[in-house]
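Sequence, structure tokens passed on for absentees:
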Amino acid sequence: MFGRRFRGTRLAEFKIVFFDEIDDPYKVTLLFQLSLSFPAMPEVLEELRANDDRYTPEFGIFAVTEDGDVAAGHLLMKIATETTAGRLYVGGVNAVGTRPEFARRGLMTTVMNTTHEYFREHGLEHSVLTTSSRVGAIVLYERLGYAELARSSQVSL
């Protein structure tokens, strides 16, 4: 399913791609300015990828327009959790963002549905998502089957 083109109802053609399929990693930084609390320049993203083994080899999944703009997406993780039955791996969705000019066009729904398919293909039956508390985003996540587990306040330094 990855790399296939989708036609959005209110957007010209776009495709779903992994991080390494994006022609210019700086295009991802524009998206992540909205969702991360630190400057996510390409070298910072590569450092995260290299030093945090929870990130999947694909690192992230994104909706890209015909012009190559990164419109929406997030980072992909495989997170080990301990349960009473032993170790369980779950999919992780991190740094979720949609650029404002592409909001409310179904892009994130398509990205998340593709992400869930990716998790199933990799044997991950459950997933967790970290996000801001924006009301519109919360409604989308609930519609996709997520439930709020906990809230935390972010500390700014």
Notes: Residues 5-143 form a domain with the Aminopeptidase fold (CATH 3.40.630.30). Helices lie at 26-32, 42-51, 107-121, 135-143. The first strand starts at residue 5 and ends at 6.
